[in-house]
Amino acid sequence: MKRASGRSTCPVSFGLEAFGDRWSLLVVRDIVYFGKHTFNEFLASDEAISPSVLSARLDGLVGAGLVRRSPDPADGRRVRYDLTERGLGLIPVLVEVAEWGATHDPATGAPADWIALVRENKAEMVRRYTETVRRGGAVFVGEDSVVAQVAADPPGALRAPARALPAGSA
Amino acid sequence: MKRASGRSTCPVSFGLEAFGDRWSLLVVRDIVYFGKHTFNEFLASDEAISPSVLSARLDGLVGAGLVRRSPDPADGRRVRYDLTERGLGLIPVLVEVAEWGATHDPATGAPADWIALVRENKAEMVRRYTETVRRGGAVFVGEDSVVAQVAADPPGALRAPARALPAGSA
DNA sequence: CAAGGTCACTACGAAGATCGTAGTGACTCG
DNA sequence: CGAGTCACTACGATCTTCGTAGTGACCTTG
What are the residue boundaries of the HTH hxlR-type domain, all occurrences included (chains A, B) (predicted)? Predict the structure, then answer.
Protein backbone atom coordinates (compact mmCIF):
# COMPACT_ATOMS: atom_id res chain seq x y z
CA MET A 1 0.00 0.00 0.00
CA LYS A 2 2.84 2.33 0.74
CA ARG A 3 4.62 2.49 -2.55
CA ALA A 4 6.33 5.70 -3.46
CA SER A 5 3.83 8.41 -4.17
CA GLY A 6 4.59 10.98 -6.80
CA ARG A 7 6.85 8.49 -8.51
CA SER A 8 5.69 8.70 -12.08
CA THR A 9 3.20 10.84 -13.94
CA CYS A 10 1.67 7.85 -15.68
CA PRO A 11 -2.09 7.59 -15.17
CA VAL A 12 -1.92 3.80 -15.11
CA SER A 13 0.61 3.95 -12.33
CA PHE A 14 -1.54 6.44 -10.47
CA GLY A 15 -4.51 4.14 -10.73
CA LEU A 16 -2.57 1.14 -9.54
CA GLU A 17 -1.34 3.10 -6.54
CA ALA A 18 -4.94 3.66 -5.55
CA PHE A 19 -6.56 0.28 -6.23
CA GLY A 20 -3.94 -1.98 -7.82
CA ASP A 21 -3.79 -4.71 -5.25
CA ARG A 22 -5.54 -7.99 -4.82
CA TRP A 23 -8.24 -6.75 -2.47
CA SER A 24 -9.37 -3.23 -3.22
CA LEU A 25 -11.33 -4.02 -6.36
CA LEU A 26 -12.99 -6.93 -4.60
CA VAL A 27 -14.38 -4.52 -2.04
CA VAL A 28 -15.61 -2.32 -4.87
CA ARG A 29 -17.12 -5.38 -6.54
CA ASP A 30 -18.92 -6.32 -3.33
CA ILE A 31 -20.49 -2.88 -3.19
CA VAL A 32 -21.34 -2.61 -6.88
CA TYR A 33 -22.59 -6.10 -7.66
CA PHE A 34 -23.80 -7.41 -4.34
CA GLY A 35 -24.79 -4.32 -2.38
CA LYS A 36 -22.52 -5.10 0.54
CA HIS A 37 -21.78 -2.14 2.75
CA THR A 38 -20.41 -3.30 6.10
CA PHE A 39 -17.17 -4.69 7.43
CA ASN A 40 -18.55 -8.10 8.22
CA GLU A 41 -20.21 -8.38 4.83
CA PHE A 42 -16.89 -7.76 3.09
CA LEU A 43 -15.23 -10.17 5.49
CA ALA A 44 -17.69 -12.90 4.56
CA SER A 45 -16.83 -12.81 0.85
CA ASP A 46 -15.71 -15.98 -0.84
CA GLU A 47 -12.13 -14.80 -1.04
CA ALA A 48 -11.48 -14.84 2.72
CA ILE A 49 -9.71 -11.60 3.45
CA SER A 50 -8.41 -11.31 6.99
CA PRO A 51 -9.81 -8.58 9.22
CA SER A 52 -6.53 -6.73 9.61
CA VAL A 53 -5.98 -6.62 5.87
CA LEU A 54 -9.57 -5.58 5.24
CA SER A 55 -9.18 -2.83 7.79
CA ALA A 56 -6.01 -1.62 6.08
CA ARG A 57 -7.65 -1.77 2.64
CA LEU A 58 -10.67 0.18 3.76
CA ASP A 59 -8.39 2.80 5.29
CA GLY A 60 -6.55 2.96 2.00
CA LEU A 61 -9.71 3.28 -0.05
CA VAL A 62 -11.06 5.97 2.22
CA GLY A 63 -7.70 7.74 2.10
CA ALA A 64 -7.67 7.60 -1.68
CA GLY A 65 -11.14 9.10 -1.72
CA LEU A 66 -12.78 6.09 -3.35
CA VAL A 67 -14.93 5.09 -0.42
CA ARG A 68 -16.77 7.03 2.24
CA ARG A 69 -17.48 5.70 5.72
CA SER A 70 -20.44 6.76 7.77
CA PRO A 71 -21.97 5.57 11.02
CA ASP A 72 -25.31 3.83 10.75
CA PRO A 73 -27.82 6.15 12.43
CA ALA A 74 -30.08 3.24 13.39
CA ASP A 75 -27.38 1.01 14.89
CA GLY A 76 -24.43 2.61 16.62
CA ARG A 77 -22.19 -0.41 16.14
CA ARG A 78 -22.52 -0.36 12.41
CA VAL A 79 -20.40 1.53 9.95
CA ARG A 80 -21.48 1.85 6.38
CA TYR A 81 -19.10 2.03 3.42
CA ASP A 82 -20.20 3.60 0.14
CA LEU A 83 -18.47 4.58 -3.05
CA THR A 84 -17.72 8.24 -3.56
CA GLU A 85 -18.10 9.80 -7.00
CA ARG A 86 -14.46 8.97 -7.59
CA GLY A 87 -15.12 5.40 -6.55
CA LEU A 88 -18.10 5.21 -8.90
CA GLY A 89 -15.60 6.06 -11.61
CA LEU A 90 -14.10 2.63 -11.09
CA ILE A 91 -17.19 0.93 -12.45
CA PRO A 92 -15.91 0.92 -16.06
CA VAL A 93 -12.66 -0.65 -14.84
CA LEU A 94 -14.58 -3.23 -12.86
CA VAL A 95 -16.77 -4.06 -15.84
CA GLU A 96 -13.75 -4.60 -18.09
CA VAL A 97 -11.99 -6.77 -15.53
CA ALA A 98 -15.15 -8.80 -15.11
CA GLU A 99 -15.52 -9.19 -18.85
CA TRP A 100 -11.93 -10.31 -19.22
CA GLY A 101 -12.33 -12.79 -16.39
CA ALA A 102 -15.59 -14.15 -17.70
CA THR A 103 -14.05 -14.59 -21.14
CA HIS A 104 -10.93 -16.40 -19.98
CA ASP A 105 -11.98 -18.34 -16.92
CA PRO A 106 -13.24 -21.75 -18.06
CA ALA A 107 -15.02 -22.16 -14.72
CA THR A 108 -16.51 -18.72 -14.49
CA GLY A 109 -19.63 -18.20 -12.44
CA ALA A 110 -20.76 -15.26 -14.54
CA PRO A 111 -23.94 -15.85 -16.55
CA ALA A 112 -23.05 -15.81 -20.25
CA ASP A 113 -26.10 -13.87 -21.34
CA TRP A 114 -25.43 -11.12 -18.82
CA ILE A 115 -21.87 -10.80 -20.07
CA ALA A 116 -23.15 -10.61 -23.63
CA LEU A 117 -25.70 -7.99 -22.65
CA VAL A 118 -23.04 -5.84 -21.04
CA ARG A 119 -20.63 -6.32 -23.90
CA GLU A 120 -23.14 -5.22 -26.46
CA ASN A 121 -24.50 -2.26 -24.52
CA LYS A 122 -21.50 -1.22 -22.55
CA ALA A 123 -22.00 2.51 -22.27
CA GLU A 124 -25.65 2.16 -21.39
CA MET A 125 -25.01 -0.60 -18.86
CA VAL A 126 -22.19 1.29 -17.19
CA ARG A 127 -24.54 4.22 -16.91
CA ARG A 128 -27.21 2.06 -15.27
CA TYR A 129 -24.68 0.47 -12.91
CA THR A 130 -23.40 3.87 -11.88
CA GLU A 131 -26.75 5.50 -11.28
CA THR A 132 -28.04 2.50 -9.39
CA VAL A 133 -25.04 2.27 -7.10
CA ARG A 134 -25.05 6.02 -6.58
CA ARG A 135 -28.50 5.78 -5.04
CA GLY A 136 -27.52 2.84 -2.88
CA GLY A 137 -28.56 -0.06 -5.08
CA ALA A 138 -26.55 -2.88 -6.59
CA VAL A 139 -26.29 -4.74 -9.87
CA PHE A 140 -27.49 -8.17 -8.82
CA VAL A 141 -29.21 -7.70 -5.48
CA GLY A 142 -32.22 -5.80 -4.21
CA GLU A 143 -35.46 -4.34 -5.47
CA ASP A 144 -33.74 -1.64 -7.44
CA SER A 145 -31.07 -3.94 -8.93
CA VAL A 146 -29.87 -3.44 -12.47
CA VAL A 147 -31.06 -6.95 -13.21
CA ALA A 148 -34.57 -5.93 -12.28
CA GLN A 149 -34.34 -2.75 -14.32
CA VAL A 150 -33.19 -4.65 -17.38
CA ALA A 151 -36.02 -7.14 -17.04
CA ALA A 152 -38.49 -4.27 -17.02
CA ASP A 153 -36.77 -2.11 -19.60
CA PRO A 154 -34.12 -3.82 -21.73
CA PRO A 155 -31.45 -1.71 -23.38
CA GLY A 156 -31.32 -1.18 -27.14
CA ALA A 157 -29.67 -4.12 -28.79
CA LEU A 158 -31.30 -6.98 -26.99
CA ARG A 159 -31.41 -10.06 -29.21
CA ALA A 160 -31.68 -8.77 -32.77
CA PRO A 161 -30.01 -5.69 -34.21
CA ALA A 162 -33.47 -4.15 -34.30
CA ARG A 163 -32.86 -0.57 -33.45
CA ALA A 164 -36.30 0.58 -32.28
CA LEU A 165 -35.46 2.98 -29.48
CA PRO A 166 -37.80 2.70 -26.52
CA ALA A 167 -39.36 5.88 -25.26
CA GLY A 168 -37.13 7.09 -22.46
CA SER A 169 -33.69 6.23 -23.79
CA ALA A 170 -30.64 8.30 -24.49
CA MET B 1 0.85 -13.82 -6.72
CA LYS B 2 0.39 -17.07 -4.92
CA ARG B 3 -3.06 -16.95 -3.46
CA ALA B 4 -5.31 -19.05 -5.66
CA SER B 5 -6.40 -22.54 -4.67
CA GLY B 6 -10.03 -22.94 -3.66
CA ARG B 7 -11.02 -19.48 -4.78
CA SER B 8 -14.27 -18.18 -6.02
CA THR B 9 -15.95 -18.40 -9.40
CA CYS B 10 -16.11 -14.62 -9.66
CA PRO B 11 -14.63 -13.29 -12.88
CA VAL B 12 -13.28 -10.21 -11.13
CA SER B 13 -11.45 -12.41 -8.68
CA PHE B 14 -10.12 -14.52 -11.54
CA GLY B 15 -8.80 -11.44 -13.27
CA LEU B 16 -7.16 -10.12 -10.12
CA GLU B 17 -5.44 -13.46 -9.63
CA ALA B 18 -3.84 -13.08 -13.03
CA PHE B 19 -2.88 -9.40 -13.09
CA GLY B 20 -4.14 -7.81 -9.88
CA ASP B 21 -0.88 -6.65 -8.42
CA ARG B 22 1.05 -3.45 -8.59
CA TRP B 23 3.43 -4.53 -11.33
CA SER B 24 1.79 -6.76 -13.90
CA LEU B 25 -0.30 -4.07 -15.57
CA LEU B 26 2.73 -1.80 -15.71
CA VAL B 27 4.54 -4.39 -17.79
CA VAL B 28 1.51 -4.60 -20.05
CA ARG B 29 1.45 -0.82 -20.24
CA ASP B 30 5.13 -0.74 -21.23
CA ILE B 31 4.41 -3.11 -24.09
CA VAL B 32 1.19 -1.49 -25.25
CA TYR B 33 2.01 2.20 -24.95
CA PHE B 34 5.79 2.33 -25.25
CA GLY B 35 6.71 -0.71 -27.28
CA LYS B 36 9.06 -2.13 -24.67
CA HIS B 37 9.84 -5.80 -25.09
CA THR B 38 12.94 -6.72 -23.11
CA PHE B 39 13.85 -7.27 -19.49
CA ASN B 40 16.09 -4.25 -19.26
CA GLU B 41 13.54 -2.00 -20.87
CA PHE B 42 10.94 -2.98 -18.28
CA LEU B 43 13.56 -2.56 -15.59
CA ALA B 44 14.25 0.99 -16.71
CA SER B 45 10.64 2.16 -16.26
CA ASP B 46 9.96 5.12 -14.04
CA GLU B 47 8.51 2.97 -11.33
CA ALA B 48 11.76 1.19 -10.44
CA ILE B 49 10.85 -2.44 -10.14
CA SER B 50 13.64 -4.64 -8.83
CA PRO B 51 15.02 -7.39 -11.06
CA SER B 52 13.94 -10.24 -8.83
CA VAL B 53 10.39 -8.94 -8.68
CA LEU B 54 10.32 -8.29 -12.41
CA SER B 55 11.55 -11.79 -13.02
CA ALA B 56 8.82 -13.20 -10.80
CA ARG B 57 6.17 -11.04 -12.49
CA LEU B 58 7.21 -12.09 -15.96
CA ASP B 59 7.12 -15.71 -14.90
CA GLY B 60 3.65 -15.09 -13.56
CA LEU B 61 2.44 -13.38 -16.71
CA VAL B 62 3.87 -16.12 -18.89
CA GLY B 63 2.34 -18.72 -16.62
CA ALA B 64 -1.05 -17.02 -16.83
CA GLY B 65 -0.79 -17.04 -20.60
CA LEU B 66 -0.80 -13.27 -20.93
CA VAL B 67 2.73 -12.90 -22.20
CA ARG B 68 4.91 -15.00 -24.48
CA ARG B 69 8.70 -15.11 -24.29
CA SER B 70 10.89 -15.81 -27.28
CA PRO B 71 14.63 -15.65 -27.90
CA ASP B 72 15.81 -12.89 -30.19
CA PRO B 73 17.11 -14.64 -33.32
CA ALA B 74 19.53 -11.81 -34.06
CA ASP B 75 21.06 -11.54 -30.58
CA GLY B 76 21.40 -14.64 -28.48
CA ARG B 77 21.48 -12.71 -25.21
CA ARG B 78 18.14 -11.10 -25.80
CA VAL B 79 14.73 -12.39 -24.86
CA ARG B 80 11.64 -10.76 -26.23
CA TYR B 81 8.32 -10.50 -24.39
CA ASP B 82 5.07 -10.03 -26.30
CA LEU B 83 1.41 -10.10 -25.41
CA THR B 84 -0.53 -13.21 -26.31
CA GLU B 85 -4.09 -12.94 -27.59
CA ARG B 86 -5.22 -13.28 -24.01
CA GLY B 87 -2.86 -10.51 -23.02
CA LEU B 88 -4.18 -8.30 -25.80
CA GLY B 89 -7.55 -8.75 -24.14
CA LEU B 90 -6.24 -6.63 -21.28
CA ILE B 91 -6.11 -3.54 -23.45
CA PRO B 92 -9.68 -2.48 -22.59
CA VAL B 93 -8.81 -2.83 -18.90
CA LEU B 94 -5.65 -0.82 -19.38
CA VAL B 95 -7.51 1.90 -21.23
CA GLU B 96 -10.08 2.22 -18.46
CA VAL B 97 -7.44 2.34 -15.75
CA ALA B 98 -5.56 4.98 -17.71
CA GLU B 99 -8.70 7.01 -18.18
CA TRP B 100 -9.51 6.84 -14.51
CA GLY B 101 -5.99 7.85 -13.58
CA ALA B 102 -5.89 10.69 -16.06
CA THR B 103 -9.22 11.95 -14.76
CA HIS B 104 -8.29 11.87 -11.09
CA ASP B 105 -4.57 12.56 -10.98
CA PRO B 106 -4.11 16.34 -10.77
CA ALA B 107 -0.51 15.90 -11.93
CA THR B 108 -1.14 13.43 -14.72
CA GLY B 109 1.28 13.25 -17.60
CA ALA B 110 -1.38 12.09 -20.03
CA PRO B 111 -2.22 14.58 -22.78
CA ALA B 112 -5.79 15.80 -22.26
CA ASP B 113 -6.74 15.73 -25.91
CA TRP B 114 -5.57 12.15 -26.30
CA ILE B 115 -7.68 11.13 -23.32
CA ALA B 116 -10.66 12.93 -24.84
CA LEU B 117 -10.07 11.25 -28.16
CA VAL B 118 -10.03 7.82 -26.56
CA ARG B 119 -13.03 8.56 -24.40
CA GLU B 120 -15.12 9.65 -27.35
CA ASN B 121 -14.08 6.83 -29.68
CA LYS B 122 -13.42 4.06 -27.25
CA ALA B 123 -14.36 0.99 -29.24
CA GLU B 124 -12.54 2.21 -32.31
CA MET B 125 -9.42 3.23 -30.40
CA VAL B 126 -9.29 -0.06 -28.50
CA ARG B 127 -9.48 -1.81 -31.84
CA ARG B 128 -6.59 0.25 -33.19
CA TYR B 129 -4.52 -0.31 -30.06
CA THR B 130 -5.10 -4.04 -30.27
CA GLU B 131 -4.31 -4.47 -33.92
CA THR B 132 -1.23 -2.30 -33.67
CA VAL B 133 0.18 -4.13 -30.67
CA ARG B 134 -0.69 -7.47 -32.23
CA ARG B 135 1.64 -6.73 -35.12
CA GLY B 136 4.40 -5.54 -32.81
CA GLY B 137 3.69 -1.80 -32.72
CA ALA B 138 2.82 0.48 -29.83
CA VAL B 139 0.44 3.31 -29.06
CA PHE B 140 2.90 6.17 -28.60
CA VAL B 141 6.17 4.97 -30.10
CA GLY B 142 7.39 3.92 -33.53
CA GLU B 143 6.52 4.38 -37.17
CA ASP B 144 3.37 2.36 -36.90
CA SER B 145 2.19 3.95 -33.65
CA VAL B 146 -1.47 4.60 -33.06
CA VAL B 147 -0.63 8.27 -32.69
CA ALA B 148 0.73 8.28 -36.23
CA GLN B 149 -2.30 6.40 -37.52
CA VAL B 150 -4.68 8.85 -35.94
CA ALA B 151 -2.80 11.80 -37.41
CA ALA B 152 -3.19 10.27 -40.86
CA ASP B 153 -6.71 8.93 -40.42
CA PRO B 154 -8.68 10.33 -37.51
CA PRO B 155 -11.59 8.33 -36.11
CA GLY B 156 -15.18 9.47 -36.47
CA ALA B 157 -15.98 12.03 -33.85
CA LEU B 158 -12.94 14.22 -34.07
CA ARG B 159 -14.50 17.59 -34.23
CA ALA B 160 -15.59 19.72 -31.30
CA PRO B 161 -13.09 20.39 -28.51
CA ALA B 162 -10.29 17.94 -29.19
CA ARG B 163 -7.97 19.17 -31.91
CA ALA B 164 -4.37 19.60 -32.85
CA LEU B 165 -2.92 16.20 -32.18
CA PRO B 166 0.60 16.43 -30.91
CA ALA B 167 2.28 14.34 -33.56
CA GLY B 168 5.16 12.96 -31.55
CA SER B 169 3.99 13.47 -28.02
CA ALA B 170 4.85 10.74 -25.61
C1' DC C 1 -31.15 -4.24 33.65
C1' DA C 2 -28.03 -7.95 33.24
C1' DA C 3 -26.46 -11.66 30.13
C1' DG C 4 -25.30 -12.61 25.80
C1' DG C 5 -24.86 -11.72 21.02
C1' DT C 6 -23.17 -8.68 17.22
C1' DC C 7 -20.49 -5.00 15.49
C1' DA C 8 -16.15 -2.93 13.76
C1' DC C 9 -12.04 -3.38 14.35
C1' DT C 10 -6.74 -4.52 16.86
C1' DA C 11 -2.94 -7.56 18.31
C1' DC C 12 0.37 -10.48 17.14
C1' DG C 13 3.48 -14.08 15.58
C1' DA C 14 4.52 -16.80 11.57
C1' DA C 15 4.96 -16.90 6.78
C1' DG C 16 5.57 -14.84 2.51
C1' DA C 17 6.62 -10.89 -0.70
C1' DT C 18 9.45 -6.87 -2.02
C1' DC C 19 13.43 -3.80 -2.06
C1' DG C 20 17.97 -2.62 -3.37
C1' DT C 21 22.38 -4.08 -4.44
C1' DA C 22 25.64 -7.21 -6.03
C1' DG C 23 26.76 -10.64 -8.65
C1' DT C 24 26.71 -14.61 -12.66
C1' DG C 25 27.07 -16.88 -16.90
C1' DA C 26 25.90 -16.43 -21.89
C1' DC C 27 26.66 -13.79 -25.58
C1' DT C 28 28.18 -9.77 -28.85
C1' DC C 29 31.17 -6.10 -30.44
C1' DG C 30 35.48 -3.89 -31.49
C1' DC D 1 40.84 -11.49 -26.73
C1' DG D 2 38.75 -7.94 -23.53
C1' DA D 3 35.13 -5.01 -22.46
C1' DG D 4 30.42 -4.35 -22.47
C1' DT D 5 25.55 -5.94 -22.55
C1' DC D 6 22.02 -9.23 -21.81
C1' DA D 7 18.75 -11.75 -18.84
C1' DC D 8 18.47 -12.98 -14.95
C1' DT D 9 19.83 -15.00 -9.43
C1' DA D 10 21.32 -14.36 -4.60
C1' DC D 11 20.59 -12.37 -0.49
C1' DG D 12 19.60 -9.89 3.64
C1' DA D 13 16.72 -6.10 5.44
C1' DT D 14 12.33 -4.60 5.41
C1' DC D 15 7.40 -4.54 4.46
C1' DT D 16 2.97 -7.03 3.88
C1' DT D 17 -0.24 -10.61 4.56
C1' DC D 18 -2.28 -14.58 6.92
C1' DG D 19 -4.95 -16.59 10.53
C1' DT D 20 -6.56 -16.62 14.93
C1' DA D 21 -7.76 -14.52 19.06
C1' DG D 22 -9.21 -10.91 21.31
C1' DT D 23 -11.49 -5.93 22.66
C1' DG D 24 -14.63 -2.47 23.66
C1' DA D 25 -18.90 -0.34 22.02
C1' DC D 26 -23.38 -1.30 21.24
C1' DC D 27 -27.95 -3.78 20.47
C1' DT D 28 -31.36 -7.36 22.05
C1' DT D 29 -33.72 -10.40 24.91
C1' DG D 30 -35.61 -12.30 29.18
Answer: 10-109
